[in-house]
Amino acid sequence: MVSGLAYGVDIEAHRQALCNGYPTVGVLAHGLDQIYPAVHRSSAVEMVRQGGGLLTEYITHTFPAKRNFVSRNRIIAGMSDAIIVVESAAKGGSLITADLAQGYHRDCFAFPGRITDPFSAGCNRIIRENSGSAILSAKDFVEAMGWDIAVKQVSESPVQQRLFPDLSPEEKLITDFL
Questions:
Q1: Rounded to an integer, what distance in angstroms lies between the CA atom of residue 13 and that of residue 19?
Q2: What would the pLDDT profile of 64-115 be if each residue is shown by its tens digit?
């Protein structure tokens, strides 16, 4: 599972995957020296501990600016086998990611919602315009992807053991210089 580690569905999907022993990847819109939103730090640490990780193209001390969030969505789309839009207003980051994914020839899925719900407008548009398939459950998704439902083993040895390692004064000087 790959996402931008955002509030709502993103972080809940990471937490549920971790509870079930699956590694996840968060693509950040800032440097690795921080987690945004900060309340997701413990989940980010657990992601690394369980063999997943954090990925960013931004250097240390890069502020999580709005343009970075839009830019990082291309990485999410490129890393993913498929994009699932669970909830989206008429405009939003998940719709940008879905559009990018289609450009990468990735599958796109959306959960339909009430036509009067503004936070279902994006999902309903994806389905209406046939730019993605409607799904109602995880089973629908697994079947659409043609995946074997058999449980796969998760690697037990993550590459990086700690998210934010302690640096010696000399190491800190070097990283600050870089």
A1: 10
A2: 999 999 999 999 999 999 999 999 999 999 999 999 999 999 999 999 999 9
Q: pLDDT tens digits, residue range 112-169? A: 999 999 999 999 999 999 999 999 999 999 999 998 766 555 555 555 556 566 778 8
Q: Give me the residues paired with residue 134 across strands.
A: 110
**Side chain identity at 37, as an amino acid letter?**
P
pTM for this predicted structure: 0.79
- How far the first Cα of the chain sits from its last, in Å, is 31
Counts of helices then strands in the chain (DSSP H, E): 7, 6
Write out the H or E segment, with its range, that includes residue 108.
strand 107-110
Cis previous bond, 64, omega within 30: no
